[in-house]
From TrEMBL:
Taxonomy, superkingdom: Bacteria
Molecular function terms from GO: hydrolase activity
Keyword Ribonucleoprotein attached: no
The species this protein was found in: Kaistella antarctica
Record Pfam families: TatD_DNase
Coiled-coil features, chain-numbered ranges: none
Record bears the keyword Hydrolase: yes
UniProt keyword list: Hydrolase
Organism phylogeny: Bacteria, Pseudomonadati, Bacteroidota, Flavobacteriia, Flavobacteriales
Matching Gene3D superfamilies: Metal-dependent hydrolases
Protein name, as recorded: Hydrolase TatD
């Protein structure tokens, strides 16, 4: 069984979800498409038109990354407006949202109310208090390389419900098998049971082929 990589940036990788760049043609595998807050600096309506079209693609599994970022120089109102539009698009397409969030967790939780599809916070490596709040509001969390090093995060992963968990490499260059093994050890599960659980979690993507 392969180790599914929920969010990565390597277009030739076949196991997982490739984060498509705006305007890029789809890869041979699954992908997600969205307008990252970083791109909003030069946002144009053409980008949203592109997203509306590409999100109909059968291998487009999710809308994102999209979300809110408190550390970039893009106006909060513009970020929120485009985030809401992407939530509405995800609702229309019935595809989950892959969320990028930096220092805006309470706002993200607020916008969860309008989402009719699952929301996954990707690259989660924040404090337990934030994680508990997200868990309470039914978010999925996807963990990456930090779990290999961050002891507090390891402690949190131990108790995090396996049915809400995904794993990813994001832009980091490392072997995801290491992460699967680490998380299996932390959770006292066999590697096979962890893989099966994540396979099960992938049902939220309505992969039909
Ligand atoms: Zn990424």
């Amino acid at each position: 069984m392969t180790d599914f990589d929920l969010h990565h940036h390597i277009s030739t990788r076949m196991t997982g979800i490739y984060n498509l760049n705006v305007g890029e043609s789809p890869p041979n595998g699954y992908f997600s498409a969205g307008i990252h807050p970083n791109l909003m600096m030069d946002f144009s309506e053409d980008q949203f038109d592109w997203l509306k079209e590409i999100s109909k693609h059968e291998r487009c599994l999710a809308i994102g990354e999209c979300g809110l970022d408190g550390l970039i120089k893009v106006d909060d109102d513009l970020q929120e407006e485009l985030f809401v539009r992407q939530i509405e698009l995800a609702n229309d397409r019935n595809k989950p949202l892959l969320i990028h969030c930096v220092r805006r967790f309470s706002q993200i939780i607020h916008f969860k109310k309008i989402a009719e599809v699952p929301m996954i916070i990707h690259g989660f490596n924040k404090r337990k208090t934030i994680a508990d709040e997200l868990q309470k509001h039914d978010f999925y969390l996807s963990f990456g390389k930090s779990v290999l090093q961050n002891v507090n995060l390891q402690e949190f992963v131990k108790g995090f419900p396996p049915e809400k968990l995904f794993l990813e490499t994001d832009g980091r260059n490392f072997n995801i098998e290491l992460l699967y093994q680490k998380v299996a050890d932390l959770k006292n599960m066999t590697l096979e049971n962890l893989q099966l659980q994540i396979q099960q979690n992938l049902k939220i993507f309505n992969i039909s082929h």
